[in-house]
Amino acid sequence: MLPEERQNTIVQLVNELGAVNVKELSARFAVTEDSIRKDLTLLQRNGRLKKTYGGALKIEPDDDHFVSQRKRKYRPAKQKIAKKVLKLLKNGDTIFLDISTTNIEVAKLLKTSGLSLTVVTNMIDVMLAMRGDEHNRLIFIGGTFSEGSDGFVGALANREIARYHYDKAFLGVVGLDLAAREATTYTPEDATTKETILRHASERYLLLESRKVGKDSACIYSDLTGLTGVLTEKELEEENIEQLKALGISCL
Length: 252
Description:
The protein is an alpha/beta fold. It has helices at residues 3-17, 22-29, 33-45, 67-70, 75-87, 101-110, 124-129, 155-161, 188-199, 238-246; strands spanning 19-21, 50-52, 55-57, 94-97, 118-121, 137-140, 144-146, 151-153, 166-172, 175-177, 182-185, 201-207, 219-222, 229-231, 250-251. The strands form 4 sheets. The chain has a 7-stranded parallel sheet, with helices on both faces. A 3-stranded antiparallel sheet has the order 1-3-2. Helix 6 links the parallel strand 4 (94-97) and strand 5 (118-121).
C-alpha cells in the first residue's frame, strides 16, 4: 500500500471510530510506529485529524469557524484584552494585527488612543475598523482570500508580510494546549501565515479568551517557543500560569 493510500485509510478509520492508536495502526498496516507517527503529523498539518500522544482524534466541527459568527460573541472579554494590548504600545511602533476578532476591538480603540503607529493587517474587519483614523498609518496585506476569516492568507500574503519588521505582533488563537505546547488555528493556510508573522516580529503576543486554554483545533502554528506573552481577559489558573512561566512567557 502506498503512503497516500494508507493515510486516506487512517482518516477513514479516525472518522468512523473517533480515535485511533499508533500501535494498532502499525500492526494493521505492517509498518513501523515511526512511519505511522509521520503519517499522523502530515495529516494533522493538512487539517484532517488531531494528533495526540499515542494516536489521533477525529476533528469535531466548530460552529465558530466563521468570523461573522465569532465577532459578536464574548465581546466584553475581547474588549478587556484589547485594552491590555494598548498598554503595550508606544508611539512609533510598527505592529501586526492578524486575523482575530479581538484585533477588531484593538483597531477600534486605536482610533481614539492618541497613539501614532504603523499598523499592518491581513484582516478586512481590522482595516474597516480603522477607516478614518488620522493618526495611525495602515498597511493592508493581500493574498488568497479566506472566506471564513474575512482576511488574506497563503503564499502571496506571506511574501508581503515578510517585507516588514514588526516591533510587536498580536495573533489570534483558536486553542492553546499548554501540555502539548501548541497554539492552533482553523486552516493550514492561516497557520503558515501566522508562522510568517511570528518570524518577523520582535515581540510576539497571543490574544485569547481564557476559555480557549485547553481547547485545540486542526492546525498548529506555534510550539510556543520564543513567545513574549499571552493576553487574556482574566487571570488564568495557577497551573496554567506556571506552565507559561516555565516557557518564559508572560501571562498578561
